[in-house]
Amino acid sequence: MSEVLNANPTIRSAADLPSRRREPSKKAKSQRPFGLLSSAIPDSAYTPDPFNPSSSSESESSEDENEVEPIDEQEIYDLIASIQDPEHPLTLGSLSVVNLPDISLTPTLSPPSSLSNQPTTSTPVMTTVTVLVTPTITHCSLATVIGLGVRVRLEQALPPRFRVDVRIKEGTHSTAEQVNRQLGDKERVAAALENGTLMGVLRKMLEGC
């Protein structure tokens, strides 16, 4: 990109960023994402899912295999903070484009009632992950690309019980409403991900994840 939109962004030290990185499971294996973005990135670009480990050993109990590990806002932040900014050689976390307080998890399906006669199951509750993105400048032309990068990363890493909702934070961009419509339109997102040039940018953004 020949012209830098924000030549002097505010940068946070990596030591100042909230983090709770977990050690990758020895049992984890590479897994394709589900849904809309399942064919957007090739297999080689995907890392093991740290939240839904599986075992190839027949000695593992069925209880261990069916265990659902909880995911919170900090772990969502850890997944997206290392995404590379498309303009600067810096991460979205260090530029405060993504911030822990701007991540929320909302259950969208109710678990079985304890008073119900129906047996309870280990099926996880469907959860909506909402991420509010803060561009470094209010007229940033790359806001949609950044939003797509966050969405692709989460679709890539999270189990299918999560629905991803990425938006521009209110009051941080001059065309936030328009960008949010683009990010929330599945057909427009799918069409955008068929663009080879855009996919090259997204792959580069996710190289450090």
Provide an overview of this structure.
The structure is a single chain. The chain is an alpha+beta fold and 209 residues long. It has 6 helices and 3 strands; from the N terminus they run H-H-E-E-H-E-H-H-H. It has helices at 62-66, 73-80, 143-157, 176-184, 186-192, 196-205, and strands at 103-107, 127-133, 162-168. Strands 1-2-3 form a 3-stranded mixed β-sheet. The chain is globular and about 60 Å long. The chain starts with 61 loop residues before the first helix and ends with a helix. Mean pLDDT is 80; it is low at 23-32.
Give the helices and strands as they follow along the chain: HHEEHEHHH
Distance between the termini: 22 Å
Percent of residues in beta strands?
5-15%
Outline the low-pLDDT stretches: 23-32
Rg is 18 Å
Please give the structural blueprint.
Layout: H1 62-66, H2 73-80, E1 103-107, E2 127-133, H3 143-157, E3 162-168, H4 176-184, H5 186-192, H6 196-205
Parallel strand pairs: 2-3
Antiparallel strand pairs: 1-2
Helix pairs in contact: 3-4, 3-6
